[in-house]
Design a protein that fits this description.
5-stranded antiparallel sheet; 5 strands; 214 residues; 41% helix; alpha+beta
Length: 214
């Protein structure tokens, strides 16, 4: 019954007076032994994949009601894996899709500002505001287009995400590197630039286009 508390205590003892260089999340899941054994067995099973290497595409638009209920990113990742996305590309694909979609949802549709993250309890305030705005969301949408094409033996995934928000002044962001940037905003975009062949914000900033080699 004290496992999580004990883990928190051990972590604090380990850190001492040193401030962690990044966020730390702890979670405790309780499940029957039979379920745990099934989970361990599943870790050793290959991801289901059709092995399809031909071109494919996916297009969809999520309404406000769907954004409140659907966990969209895992659906897209599983779909791409079923269409033949390799394991070696799966992690990068997940990172890019997550960043693009969450930016569209949080900053575009919900209108959250990264300035909410400022201060010692900034991230907590940001999460609370996100949950409240998402729960009260009545209008807004995100359009998503994903396609795969083999170009001279090299797979290319093209991603376009457009939200109904007002956009932002992406031209003023610059190209700060991850190590140079101390801001609480724009770091996800800098990270995506490392993994994507190209990354472009268009129109008012509420449309983004990315290309990912796989």
């Amino acid at each position: 019954a004290e496992r999580l508390t004990a883990l928190q205590s051990e972590l604090q003892n380990f850190l001492g007076t040193t401030k962690p260089h990044d966020d730390i999340s702890l979670a405790l899941f309780e499940c029957p032994a039979s379920m745990a054994l099934q989970g361990v067995a599943a870790l050793h099973e290959p991801l289901p994949s059709s092995g399809i290497q031909s071109d494919w595409q996916l297009q969809t638009t999520l309404s406000a009601a769907q954004l409140k209920e659907i966990d969209f990113v895992p659906m897209v990742v599983n779909w791409a894996q079923a269409m033949g996305l390799s394991k070696s590309s799966g992690g990068t694909f997940f990172l890019v899709i997550t960043e693009l979609f969450m930016n569209a949802l949080e900053h575009g549709v919900l209108g959250l500002s990264s300035s909410l993250k400022e201060g010692a309890e900034g991230f907590e305030h940001y999460v609370e505001a996100r949950q409240q705005r998402l729960q009260n969301l009545q209008k807004g949408q995100i359009s998503f287009a994903l396609s795969y094409r083999n170009e001279n033996g090299q797979g290319v995934i093209r991603i376009q995400v457009q939200d109904s928000g007002a956009g932002f002044n992406y031209r003023a962001m610059g190209d700060d590197g991850l190590t140079a940037s101390k801001r609480l905003s724009g770091r996800g975009i800098a990270l995506m630039r490392r993994f994507c062949r190209s990354l472009e914000y268009r129109d008012a900033g509420n449309k983004v286009y990315a290309e990912l080699l796989c």
